[in-house]
Amino acid sequence: MAAMRCVSRLLTRRTINTISTRGYADEMSFTFAAGNQVFYDSQSVRQVDVPSFSGSFGILPKHVPTLAVLKPGVVTVFENDGAVKKIFVSSGTVTINEDSSVQVLAEEAAAVENLDASAAREVLSKAQSELASASTDQARAEATIAVEVGEALVKAVE
User: Fold this and answer.
1) What average pLDDT does range 78-91 have in this prediction?
2) Where are the beta strands (DSSP E) in the chain?
3) Is the distance from CB of 79 to CB of 85 less than 8 angstroms?
4) What pLDDT was estimated at residue 85?
5) Whole-angstrom Cα distance, residue 52 to residue 127?
6) Of the candidates 121, 118, 142, which has an alpha carbon nearest to the alpha carbon of residue 130?
7) Which residues form the signal peptide (predicted)?
8) Distances (CA, A) of 80 to 74, 87, 110, 117, 157
9) Averaged pLDDT of the chain
10) pTM for the whole thing?
11) For position 26, what pLDDT does the model report?
12) Quick one: pLDDT at residue 129?
């Protein structure tokens, strides 16, 4: 029991020290890039919502440091001037640092407004056909990923 109190006091002190030294910012520096385009380059934004395999979550300036994997879906960026930008990502990572800077690195990304609904449905249909005809475990795994991306793409344009 005494050991538990000691650990509890230690954790409390560490938590207080971490919070007091972290230096939370009121703004969030945001970088978002993909292989084909840089969308934001260390720009200040209010909030970012990202799709991850642990569930979609919002990022505000005082967010706890985090590293997460992006799943196919839409990243929503709330800019300081009130504008809202929606960008589709196929996959990637999001890093939230102690200084409130955030980096999203996507394999592929495109502004939702530039996506074509019929092309998205065609991508999904092709992926579903590839999954149906896959004969190896590797082919099935690759086709399953393509179907997941295709479904998210269709959902993004609807």
Assistant:
1) 94
2) 28-34, 38-50, 57-59, 66-70, 73-79, 84-89, 92-96, 102-106, 109-111
3) yes
4) 96
5) 21
6) 142
7) none
8) 19, 17, 21, 29, 25
9) 85
10) 0.78
11) 64
12) 96
Using CA atoms, how far apart are residues 114 and 157, in angstroms rounded to an integer? Answer: 9
More confident residue, 26 or 73: 73
DSSP 8-class letter at 65: P
Token pair listed for 139: 């082919």
Residue 52 pLDDT more than 70? Answer: yes
d(CA 107, CA 42): 19
Give me the mean pLDDT over the 35-43 stretch. 93
Q: Which two tokens stand for residue 144?
A: 């399953």
Other residues' Cβ atoms within 10 Å of the Cβ of residue 62: 11
- Residue indicated by tokens 């990502």: 89
- Mean pLDDT, residues 57-64 taken together: 88
Give CATH superfamily name and number for 23-113: F0F1 ATP synthase delta/epsilon subunit, N-terminal (2.60.15.10)
Range(s) of the chain covered by CATH 1.20.5: 115-157
**Any idea what the Cα angle at residue 37 is, between residues 130 and 129, rounded to 5°?**
5
CB of 97 closer than 8 Å to CB of 41: no
CATH number for the domain running over 115-157 = 1.20.5
Say which residue the tokens 């996959």 belong to.
91
Q: Is 94 helix (H, G, I), strand (E, B) or coil?
A: strand
